[in-house]
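Re: the pair you flagged

First of the two:
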Amino acid sequence: MSFIYKYTLACLLVGILSGCTKVPLPERFDAVPIREQTEDLALDIADVRNLPQDLTAYLDPAKADTPLLNAATQQLFAAKVVENLLAPWRDSWRPRPASEAFVMLTTLQKKKFYGSNRRPITVEEVADLQRLCDVEGYPSLDVRAITLQPAEMRGLPTRRPAFYDFRIAGQGFPFDHLQFSTLPGNTPVRVIHRSTDGLWLFVEGPDFDGWLPAETVAPVDRELMATFRHSAWRVVLEDGVAVMDAGGRVLTRTAIGNLWPRAEGDKVWLAVRGIHGRAALQAVPLSPSVAKPFPVPLTSRNLAELGNRMLGHPYGWGGLFGDRDCSATLQDLYLPFGLPIGRNSTQQSRAGKIVSLKGLSPAERERRLLEKGRPWLTLVWMQGHVMLYLGPYQGRAALLHTLWAVRTRDAQGQERRHFVGRTVVTTLQPGRELPEIAVPEGDLRTRMKRLVMLGTMPEKP
């Protein structure tokens, strides 16, 4: 190839990429303004820049080491955490009706969803999933089992995602509606059904039902279950620590909130695959700095120090990529202290005594929070989102939450998003300084529905 030819080709490519050459561009239904794609991703909202992103800054020094609940009450709640963890092994178990087990299949049949290629999921693809589900054969199993490693629980037996319309703000990635949650290793489950290809198992977990990859699950025997039921417990306070056997083989990794039965000394019991594919228990060491006796003393200082380990972590819808969404952050924050608040925001909306905010103006709702909220023990709930009240800061309510984005509108009035995408501390008006902030829906005060007082008896559904 001659120098002149190379030079001409290079100039042509530069012209195309710079927009100087008039080359028709294909229409892209997912195209968004340049500001949303680039500048918004690079800029933090003012709250994140101006409010301390260190939870110890919100402590009352005079009360930081005072228990938030008395010891007897905390132990009562902690017993409920263990009871919930072991619930899939209970003798009184009954399978959920098929209408509940296959709700996502019904949803895919009725509504339009998109795949990872941003194209509609076809009728043929849904039919393939229906065959995998073997609805007519449900329930086909009743096996007490345990997870051997962290596993993503899915709404259908597939790793392929199902998104709503990418053109709509707040839809598309990362909101895969088949991504329910991530179950840690060592989690008791009840196997109810198997996919026709044998690669997926439908299980009941402590908080959710859904499909797990078959290789992540193993059946348990009575002896293993008895060990779990009669052991003391240790709770993990660090993410991402490799748990290894005596030979240095990595068995699993830790995540804040893992609750594992204690063996001798600083060891815990970890389920591994044994002979004939059944689960066996192996005692593995876990540093006292990584895991503590359960429950950890419930003080605001301990909550702040643990929460700081999650601050700044990326947003992870349903545990996607091993990260946390808003409700997972709060569940993992409170579980080490023995408070069972549930896995999703709906469960957490009734995890304690409820103070309704119905009929109040936005300003009145914040005042009600400042007056009635108990720092470190009050959740602020709105449809689809939940936050923790840390207390007043410079006259405003300060909140810890894992926030995907704040709502904005472009010059044409179309709804957009200014991305945050991680665990942060903000006021109830994050992004209020943005000229494009959506009014009134961008103001969280307009959307907050109730306060939930933790450490009190949960409200009934």
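Second of the two:
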Amino acid sequence: MRKYIPLFLFILLISTHELILAQTNDAQLWIGYEMDKKVIKRTKTHLKYQVRFTDNYTRFDYAFFDFGIDYSLHDNISISTAYVINMKNDRELSWLLRNQWYGNIQFEQKLGKFKISNREQVQTDLEDDIEAGGNWFYRNKTALQYKLNKKLTPYIQIEGYMRIGERPPSEDVLYRTRYHAGVKYRYNKRNDLTMSFLYQRQIRRNQPDHIYSIILNWSHSAK
């Protein structure tokens, strides 16, 4: 029996090594800023900016600028469209600039102190854009929030990404899933501060990625 112990340990070591290589776990920090301004009745412009630190908060990896227009069709229905400039810190090629467009429609309904919302979005490809040659994605996000008092609003949300059209054999039906929980603090009439935690899972290059991110965000409504 003893002569099989080294072989067993070798197989266990190889299996553990393969399991580690087969997936990536990373703690990240995302810091964002949003500003909107009313231009005419029911229409606003928005600017969003976010930076992300990866590799357990040690590397500045990603940033984007989002320029868009939001239009309120009804008290409970709105649509948006935007152009996004993405900057990705590629370890070998330095910073890569990529372009993206999206359009969405959002529905929301208040139920006492609760508010539920659902956003349907279509966007151009971003991940692996050079290799994929330009794909499209459908994103569905549902959120539930509760107005605890005049200052604090905790919330939870879930979001799923699906590739439109043919997908790689290794990819799940849901390309990416996000689970999100946080609290919004109403600093004053025009400024909100949000702190939240996000868990993200996706399949990329045949490897599942698991991201655990702290998100800090400042929202400002201009006069």
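The chain has one domain: 26-222.

-B.
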